[in-house]
Write a structure and sequence with these properties.
single chain; alpha+beta; 5-stranded mixed beta barrel; 4 helices; potassium channel regulator activity; ion channel; KCMB1 protein; ion transport; transmembrane helix
Length: 200
């Protein structure tokens, strides 16, 4: 009687472990799919792939401009902010080009090098932009990214999704997938050993 209870408990444990492993594999596949349709397209579409050194030529703050927080936004979401324009000398070609913070900055407002968030108030925005401008004047040489194909003549300070960030995004679903597969394999081995022991 006790042996039957132990076998039943063992089978229940194996079933739960098998469900856990299958659930981990399914969740990891969903994460792979989500990353594949969100992050990977932005990474592959970015033409600013080559890193070089940029030297600041001028960093000016112009009059306030109006820019929507996102494409297709309503009028109440349009907010004013000081327009920072940073021009740099591209070491790779020696050209004078405009610098943008990321790829998204160029899409939101091609006239300004930095686009603040709408949630910030006007004083914080002004202080932050002045700080950024002073930092560019202080640290005049820094790494930046340019388009080696020449499609875009401007440069960006940092990529939204660099190669390291993409690898880090795939790290967690890979670990979950590996753990789920390992649990399934261990359960199958345990079942095989149990059947073999019972047969002997």
């Amino acid at each position: 009687m006790l042996g039957k209870k132990l076998v039943t408990a063992q089978k229940r444990g194996e079933t739960r472990a098998l469900c856990l492993g299958l659930g981990m594999v399914a969740c990891s596949m969903m994460m792979y799919f989500f990353i594949g349709i969100t992050i990977v397209p932005f990474y592959t579409k970015s033409v600013w792939t080559t890193e070089t050194v940029c030297k600041v030529l001028k960093a000016n703050i112009k009059d306030r401009v109006f820019c929507p927080n996102s494409k297709g936004s309503e009028d109440e979401e349009i907010f004013p902010y000081p327009c920072l324009q940073v021009w740099v000398n591209l070491t790779a070609s020696g050209q004078e080009v405009m610098l943008y913070q990321t790829e998204d900055t160029l899409e939101r407002n091609p006239k300004c090098s930095y686009v603040p968030d709408k949630l910030e108030n006007s004083k914080e925005v002004k202080a932050r932009i002045e700080t950024i401008a002073s930092n560019f004047k202080k640290y005049q040489t820094f790494p930046c990214y340019y388009d080696p194909g020449g499609t875009q003549t401007n440069v960006i300070l940092s990529r939204l999704y660099p190669a390291k960030g993409l690898l880090f995004a795939f790290l967690w679903p890979t670990l979950m997938f590996t753990g789920g597969c390992l649990i399934i394999v261990l359960v199958k081995i345990s079942q095989y050993v149990s059947v073999l022991s019972a047969w002997q």
